[in-house]
What we know:
The complex is a heterodimer. By secondary structure, chain A is mainly α. Helices cover 79% and strands 0% of the residues of chain A. Chain B has helices at residues 2-21, 26-44, 49-62, 68-73, 77-96, 98-107, 114-131, 134-152, 157-170, 179-188, 192-217, 219-232, 236-241, 248-265, 267-274, 280-296, 301-308, 311-330, 332-344, 348-365, 368-384, 390-402, 412-425, 431-455. The interface between A and B is large, with 50 and 48 residues.
Amino acid sequence: MLKKFIILVVISLSLGFLSSSIGLSFNQSMAIAIFSVSVLGTLFFWDFRLGFVFLGTSILLMTRTINIENVIKFASLDVILFLVGMMILVGLMKEAGFFAWIVQLILRIRNMTAVKFVVIISVISALLSTMTSEVVSIIFMVAAVLEICDYFEVDPVPYITISILATNIGSAATVLGNPIGILIATKAGLTFEDFIIKAFPLAMVCLLAAIILLIIWYRKTNMQLDKHIKELGANEMLIRLISVPPDKELKISLAIFGATLFFIALHHRLELLWDLEPNTLLLMMPLFASGCVMIWKWKRAREYVEKDVEWWTLLFFMFLFAQAGTLKYTGATDVLAQKLATLAGNSLPVLIGIVLWVSAIGSSILDNVVLVAAFIPVIQSFQSMNLDLQPLWWALLFGGCLGGNITLVGSTANIVALGILEKERNIRMTFFRWFRVGLAVGVLTTTIAWIALLVFPFYR
Amino acid sequence: MLKKVFLLILISLSAGFFSLRLGLNPHQATSIVIFCVSVLGTLFFWSFRLTFAFLGTSILLITQTIDVDNLIKSSSLEVILFLVGMMVIVGFLKDAGFFAWLVSLILRIKNLTAEKFLIYISVISALLACAVDEVTAIIFIIAAILEICDYFEVNPVPFLIISVLATNIGSSGTVLGNPIGIIIATKSGLTFEDFIIKAFPIMLVCLLVTIGILNVWFRKSLKELDERMKEFGANEILIKLISVPPEKELKIGLAIFGATLFFISLHHRLEILWDLKPNTILLVLPLISSGGIMAWKWKKARKFIEQDVDWWTLLFFLLLFAQAGTLKFTGATDVFAQKISLLIRDNTVVLTGFVLWVSAIGSSILDNVVLVAAFIPVIQSLQELGYNLQALWWALLFGGCLGGNITMIGSTANIVALGILEKERDVKIEFLRWLKIGAVVGIVTTMIVWLALSIFPFYK
C-alpha cells in the first residue's frame, strides 16, 4: 500500500520534472503530473479513484493551471448526460425483462451443437454490447452461459471467456457500445452513421476472426460439450421448461428502445434536415427517451435515476475529462503531439500504428476511458499539423476496445464477468489462463484493424 | 390529474403567446414556455419534475433555442459540484455521529425551562442550518425535539413548528445554508465574507424577533411544558441516561468540517492573496475536503456518493439552471429587465421591495431554487442596463429563504419535517394552522429585511 503510494508519487513527480526539463511550462508540467496521478491512481488504488480526481482537480484549480469555466467546459457534461439517459433506458429494459427474454431465447435454440453454441453466444454478446453497453450485456450473457453449461455439465470457463471476448469486440461497433464510443464521436464530430458504415463492418470481421480462432482454441472443450449434448439428447428438456413469452410491458419497452435506436441511427440526417448543430440529436435522444420512460413509469423514476445510473463512475469520468482537458488547455498535448509526429516522421501510417497499438496495450492495463481521455487532446492537437484525423480516431476506438481483451483487468466487462464467475461458481480465473487466449485474440483483432486502417482509403 | 395537465399546458402556452404579442421573438417565447412548464411542473407534479426538465431541455435543443455548448455553460455545474462536495461532507458527519452527538447535547441541557428550550432549539436550528444545510439540520433537531417532548409528555407540534421556522430563517445566514445561497454567491460575485457581514446580522435580527413572536404565540404550550418540567424535576434522568462522549472519529470529523468552514470563510482573502479568480476557493474547498474524506474512508466512499448525494434533486437543478440560462441566452430576460426598468425608472427602493416580496410570496408556493433560478437572469440583465444593485441580490436571498416559512410546503425543510412527524407520531398539521403562524413570522421577518435593505446604504 505505502509502497504503491510512493511509486505513484515518484512516477508522477518525475514525469512532471521531466516535462519541465524538456521545455514545458510550469502549468503544462503541472497538468501532466496531476493527470498521471489520476491515471496511476486508477491503476494502483481502484477504490480511491474518485478521491484522487477530486483532489487533483482542486490542485489544478488552486495552482491556476486552469480556471473553473474551463473545467466545466472540458467536463463533457453532454457525454455525461447522454450516459445518464442511456443508463435509465437500460434500467427500464432490465426491469421489463428484456435481458431475461434474450437469455431464454438462447436457451431455447433447437438442435444445439457446440460450434453453434459458440457462434451464437459470440454474436449475441457482440450485438447486445453494441446496443446497450458492454457491462450490462455481459451480466446477462454470463447468466445464460452458466445455465446452459450447468445443464450439460461442462466447464463454463471457456464459454464465459468467449462471451467476454466477443462483448469487448462488439463494443467497438457503435456509439452506444462503450463510453469511449460516444466520447470519440462528440470530440471527433463522427456520426452514428459513420460508426455503422466504418466501425461496424470492421468489428464484425474482427468478431468472425475471433470466433474462428476460439473454435480452434477450445476444440477439446467443444468436443466434450458435443458428447454431453448427444448423451442428454440436446436441450429439449430445457426448451420445454423455459418459455417466457414477451409480455405487454416488454413490448412497449422494446418499442421505446427501438425508436430511440432508430432516431439515434438517423441523427445525422435529421440534424441536416432540421439544420441543427452536429450531434445535437445524438446527445439529446437518450434524454428525451428517458424523459418519456420516467413519465410512463413515474413511480419508479427516482429509482432509475438513483440506482441504475452509475453516479460514482460518471462523476469520475467528469473529473477525468476535465483533467485531460487541462492537458489540452495548457498546451501540453500540443507539445506531445509535435514530438510524437516528429517521432513518426510526420507519416500518417506510422502514427496510425502508434495510436492503435499504444491504445490497445495501454487499455489492457488501464481503464480504456482513462486512456482515451488522455489521447483525445493529443489527437486534437494533430489537427494543427494538417494531418488527416479520421483514421486516428478509428485507431483510438479500436485500440481502446480490442485492447481490453488482452488481460483479465483490461475492461470493465472482464472484471464484472469474472467477479460473477467467482461469486457464483467459486472459480477463479488465473492471470495466465486468460492472458494466453486474450493475447491471441487481442493481437489478432488489432492486427486486422491495423491492416484495414492502413489498406483501405475508406477510413481516411 | 388531467385537469392539471390541461391547466399547465394552457398557462404555459398563453405565457408564450403573450410574450410573442409583446414583441419577443419565437426563440425567446419558446424558452419562456418551456421554463413555465418546468416551474408549473414542480408545482403540480412534484414527482414528475425531473421528467419535465428532461423533456423541456430536449425541446429547447431541437428547436435550436439553445445549442449544446451554451446549455452546458449555463448549467452551473460548479454549483452542482459544490453541492456534491458538501453532501459528501455532511454524509460523512452523519456517519461519524456528529448529529447524534449534537442531539445528546440538547437533551442534556441543565436546568431546562420551557423558554430556555424554545431559545435553544431556535438558535441551534438556525446555526446548524447556516453551517450544514436546512434539510440535514431539521432532521436531527426534530429527533431531539421528539425525544424531549415524549419525555415530558407534551405535544411536540408547536416545538417542531418553531424549529422549522428557525431553520428556514437560519438558512439565509451563510452561503452554505441553502442551495440558493451558493447560486446567488456564484452569480453575483458575493463572497462568504459578504454573507457573514451583511446577511448574517439581518438573519440574527429576524431570528430574535421570531423567537419573541413565538414565545407569545405558543405561550400556552410553553406553560404546559413548564408545569410538566416542575412535576418531572427537569430532565435530570434524561441527562443521566444519555451521555455520548465524542469519540476519536467524531473529533477528526469535526476537525475536518471545522477546517473546511474556516477556509470557506476566508476564501475571499485567500483568493486575493493567491491571485485566483473570485469564488475559486469557495467552490473548490468542498471538493478538497470530500476528496480527503473519500481517501481516508475509502471503504465508505462509494456509499457517500451513491446514498448521501441527492442525485435526483441535483440533476433537476442542473437542467433547471440550464433552462433559466436559456432565458438569458435568448434575451428574453433582457426584455423583461427593460420593461421593469421603464416601469420603475430610477426608483431602486421600489425595485428592491418588488424583488423581495415577489420572491417571498413565490417561494411560499414554489421551490425556492426554481424561483431564484428564474430571477437570476433578470437581475443579471438589469445589471447590464446599468443598475448596480447589491440590494437586489440580498432581496432575492432573503425573499427566497424567509418566504419558505409562509406555507407548509414553502421549503424542503418544512416538507421533510412534517413528513417525519406524520410517520413517527401519526400527527397531521392542517394547512391553515401552519399558515396562521407561518404568515405572521414570514411577513414580519420579510418586513424587517425590507426596512434594512431600504434604510441602510450598507446594502446598496
